[in-house]
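Try this one yourself first.
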């Protein structure tokens, strides 16, 4: 298995990243020519911005491939203690080819996503009612962890495309419910093998809080406390569940106990 992973990484075709880069380069050149001819070509700005987003995706993939290559070499030589030297001598040829292609494509200090933001911002000025561009820029801001700007763009998109926003929210809610259901099922199955595992009951309790089934949350936190009576987190969690149920007296007792045990 180790040898197979190593071989796959080392002998990937050299154009595994370079070919997509070349395609993006052609697209960017085409849209840049259109913009040069017409500074108000919102469609060209939008498509060029999307090219920069694709470029960033390839960059992330390249970094992952490089890390996997280094990991494979460490697996083959687990006693190696000079990781930096190991990384420096990596022969993942696709990484070299990628960097050459990317340096050719971008000769300035701006990262692909920054250039995408620039293009999408111009589109918004030219076509302020174009809903999709707000959503695209929202996704970039979200990936950059700029929550304030991401939220503002999301709200603008939702106003312009309420049906799309409603559909997306439903998809997210369905995904959240499915995730919670999976957590509950997994914890219950694990408890069949280990019925005194306090951490599993705690996981169940938190899942039931997410599901807004606060009574079952209290029941499971209580079981967690039974097996680990000095765990402050469990009292804190049960206190929150009691609060959700409207049991303020019980909540105050549990939260005070959690604090006494050093959990805040």
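Now uncover the answer:
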């Amino acid at each position: 298995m180790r040898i197979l992973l190593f071989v796959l990484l080392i002998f990937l075709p050299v154009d595994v990243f370079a070919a997509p880069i070349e395609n993006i380069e052609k697209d960017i050149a085409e849209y840049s020519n259109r913009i040069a001819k017409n500074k108000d070509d919102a469609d060209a700005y939008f498509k060029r911005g999307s090219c920069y987003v694709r470029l960033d995706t390839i960059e992330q993939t390249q970094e992952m491939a490089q890390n996997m290559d280094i990991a494979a070499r460490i697996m083959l030589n687990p006693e190696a203690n000079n990781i930096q030297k190991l990384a420096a001598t990596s022969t993942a040829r696709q990484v070299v080819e990628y960097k050459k292609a990317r340096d050719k494509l971008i000769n300035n200090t701006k990262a692909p996503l920054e250039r995408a933001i620039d293009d999408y911002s111009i589109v918004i000025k030219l076509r302020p009612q174009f809903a999709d561009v707000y959503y695209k820029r929202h996704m970039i801001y979200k990936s950059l962890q700029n929550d304030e700007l991401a939220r503002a763009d999301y709200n603008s998109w939702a106003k312009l495309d309420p049906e799309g926003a409603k559909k997306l929210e439903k998809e997210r809610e369905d995904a959240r419910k499915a995730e919670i259901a999976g957590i509950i099922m997994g914890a219950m199955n694990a408890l069949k093998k280990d019925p005194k595992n306090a951490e599993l009951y705690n996981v169940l309790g938190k899942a039931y809080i997410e599901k807004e089934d606060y009574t079952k949350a209290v029941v499971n936190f209580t079981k967690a406390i039974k097996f680990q009576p000095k765990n402050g987190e469990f009292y804190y969690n049960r206190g929150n569940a009691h609060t959700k149920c409207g049991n303020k007296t019980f909540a105050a007792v549990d939260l005070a106990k959690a604090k006494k045990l050093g959990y805040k």
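Discussion: The two ends are 46 Å apart (CA to CA). Residues 1-17, 83-88 have pLDDT under 50 and may be disordered.
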